[in-house]
Amino acid sequence: MYLVDTSVWIDAQRPVPGPKGLRLRELVDQQASFGLAPVILQEILQGCRDEAALARTRHQLALQRCFLPVDPVKTCADAGALYARCRWAGVAPRSSNDCLIAQIAIEYELTLLHDDADFERIASVEPRLKLA
To answer: Per the structure, how many domains does the chain have?
Structure first.
């Protein structure tokens, strides 16, 4: 099962998507198991261009499975510790949200489908993070 990052959702919406966007389109066509996390939902919606796009996107994403933090306080604390470990290793991610997304993927043992180099850096520090 996949957790699909914001970077892939955005790519899949382009007229000519890249390989990861095409993979998401394939997953949708195959009715494969995948989902998103609340922070991914937030990131996608905050990028909408207008009210109509916001309403359309919100409706489409409401149909997807949403992986909530197993224990919100522990998940956020573990994501903070993951960010700190990355920083100590000299590979601090640009966004702390990426560590939260990675932590949720780890908790559910999901494969993270992404198009963001930060996740490669996080995975170099945290071997439990499975990347597509």
So the answer is: 2
